[in-house]
Each structure stands twice: as structure tokens, then as C-alpha cells.
Amino acid sequence: MKAIVKFGLNDGDVEVRDVPEPQLQPGTVLIAARAVGVCGSDIHMWRNGQSWDVALPVILGHETAGVIAAVADDVDGWEVGDRVVCETAASICGVCALCRTGRYNLCPLRQGYGAIRDGAFGELLLAEPRVLHRIPDGVSFAQAAMTEPFAVAYNALVERASVTPGDLVVIQGAGAIGALSLQVARLRGAGTTVVLGTGVDEHRLAKARDLGADHTLDITREDPVALLRTLGDGLGADVVVDATGVSAALRQSLELVRPFGSIAKIGWGPQPLGFSLDPLVAKAATLYGSFSHTWTTWERVLSLFATGALDTDAVLGGIYELEDWERAFEDMESGRNIKSVMVMPG
How far apart are CA 130 and CA 27, in angstroms? Predict the structure, then answer.
């Protein structure tokens, strides 16, 4: 089968290759991928800017929607033809304290699709039933492929640094996770929302305004701290969401957050900090790391898709064929769209 493969540790070491199809194993199903979202982490791996372990070669892609193509004899409850989305934790130990308490997303032996285990930018994906969720009627494959990034935003703003009605929420980064975090924050009742971007984000900041952001700023031209002094009581944001991963954003978040406020750090980045965390202490603010998601998160997001409470179409910038993967990646990297989704052969 054809698949998008990261094969080396240099910028650009990604290409479409013919690879063997995965083989059905006991306790598993095969998923015929129909639509797979491009994540910012896929672009980082294309540019070899990732800050996590990878196995080489590895098929990229972890935002998966498709159809079950085969079911092992010892698997119950699933049938060929079922429409499903697939969580990202390809394997976990299942016995550590984190797995036993439902925090398997943090299992120390977790192996993620598209990094350690072969992902979904191909025709078939091998999966354990524990990671499957049924796609609601009326939700397309392209929409369902966005379950994973919406689950990231839901985890950050509902399960970690929870937004409460009336909060002032600042989102650093106008890409996919930033746009989805904006939707979740507004759904939670945020009183005022601010989205920050840079010079490449003109289109994405305009889209954030369309999605209901009260204020958008290009931080290379305007000072967000000055803006926050004019909002509410002027003390800063109740919740700051770092959806960029760059160290400068975290430093800025310490200026933006109000005393006793919260920072949800979603973005990854390998850069050293190079600054003091004393403002976090002085403000008695809370810094939340927010990683991945669990079964309940996915079910909640899918139910919100089914009711139309979350808008996938507003952030879907383009749908691309497998052979056109490089344009799909470049369109996200350049800011020409917020989210690219690949449609798989078959």
C-alpha cells in the first residue's frame, strides 16, 4: 500500500512509499482510513523539529477516521463496515497506576500512532478495539478526522485549566489548536476571548474573528499586555492557552495571566526556557501541562459534533489526495489554511 513515511532525521525526510500492509493480529481490527487530519506535529516531523522520540521509518498520521475492514476472531462488538475514529494511543501497558486509574494517555509505555507506531497516512491501520469510537450519523469522515485535535482543546480547557462562564481567555497561536481552543472556550462561556498570532497569521486571525474572537492581535505589531490592561479589571487573563510550543510564548503567558489565574500549555517545543519562572510564583498562578486525551474526552467531542455545537467546517481549510501531501503540509505551515485533511485511497 502507499503511505506517507518519515524515513530520516533531516529536514524533508518524508515521502510517499510503497509499504507492506499491516496484518490482522489477535485482539485487533484493521481500519481502512478514509480521512486523516494533518497535525502540527506531522509538520514538525517533516521538518525534523519534533521534541519527542520517533521510530524510523514510521508512517505519519494520527487523526484518523475510517471504516473497519477486518475484525479478528476474538474481537466482539465491532463489525466490518463500522464507521470509526481512532484514538492516538496505539499501545499502553494496561497495568501501571496511570492506566488503572484511567489516565492511560500518560502511561510511561504508551506508544503513539505516527511517532513510535505506524500511523494512518496509508490505506490500512492496525488498532486495538479499546481506541475505537463510533462516528455519529450525519458526521462525515472529514469532520470526524478532527475529533483528535478538538479532544486536545477539550482536555486543556475543560479537564485541565477549566474555563468558567465570564472568564477572560487569551489563546496564543492562531493555528488549528488555537482555533479549536477558541471554540471550546466560547462553548464553556468565556466572557471575552483574545487570539494572538504573528505576521503569517493574517488569514487565520481573520478566521478567529469569524469564529467569535472578541479581539485578535499580531504580536509583532501590537502589545497584548497593553490590550489586557483595558479589559475587565485590567489584571490580566483568567486563562491563557499556549498553543504554540515556543518558549517565548510561555514567557509572554506569564505576563498575560492574572494573579491566581491559569496557563494551559498544549504546544511542544525543544527550545530551552532562558528566563525565570518567578512571575508564576509571584502571581500564585497555575501552569497546567495538557497532553493527549482519554476515552471520555473523545465521546464528549463526538457528541458535540453530532449536535452541531462544535463547528468543524469553519476550520477545515482543504481536503487533499495522498499524492498531494506536500501541498497539504505547506498550506498549514504557511498559514494559508488552519487545517488540512488527507483523503486516503480506497
Answer: 10
Residues 225 and 138 in one domain: no
pLDDT at 85: 98
For 305-330, what is the mean pLDDT? Answer: 94
Q: Which DSSP string corresponds to 198-237?
A: -GGGHHHHHHHHHTT-SEEEETTTS-HHHHHTTSTTSS-E
Residue burial 104-139, b: 16+ Cβ < 10 Å; e: rest: bbbbeebbbbbbbbbbbbbbbbbbbbebbbebeeeb
Burial tier of 274 (Cβ tally within 10 Å: 0-12, 13-18, 19+): exposed
Question: pTM surpassing 0.90?
Answer: yes
CA atoms within 13 A on the CB side of 171: 33
Secondary structure class of 123 (helix, strand, coil): coil
Q: What is the pLDDT of residues 22-39, one digit of tens each?
A: 999 999 999 999 999 999
According to DSSP, residue 307 is labeled H
CATH of the domain at 162: 3.40.50.720
Cell numbers found for residue 292 = 493527549
Whose grid coordinates read 522520540?
Answer: 53
Per-residue pLDDT reduced to its tens digit, 118-167: 999 999 999 999 999 999 999 999 999 999 999 999 999 999 999 999 99
Statement to judge: residues 108 and 11 lie in one domain: yes
Is the pLDDT confidence value at 285 over 80? yes
Q: Under a CB-based contact definition with an 8 Å cutoff, are residues 168 and 190 in contact? A: yes
The dihedral over CA atoms of 41, 265, 98, 272, expressed in degrees to the nearest 10, equals 70
Let me know whether 285 and 318 are in one domain.
Answer: no
User: Does 345 score more than 80 pLDDT?
Assistant: no
DSSP codes joined into one string, 271-283: ----S--HHHHHT
Residue showing cell 462544535: 310
Per-position b or e across 295-324, b if 16+ CB within 10 A of its CB: bebbebbbebbeeeebbbebbbbbbbebeb
CATH number at residue 50: 3.90.180.10
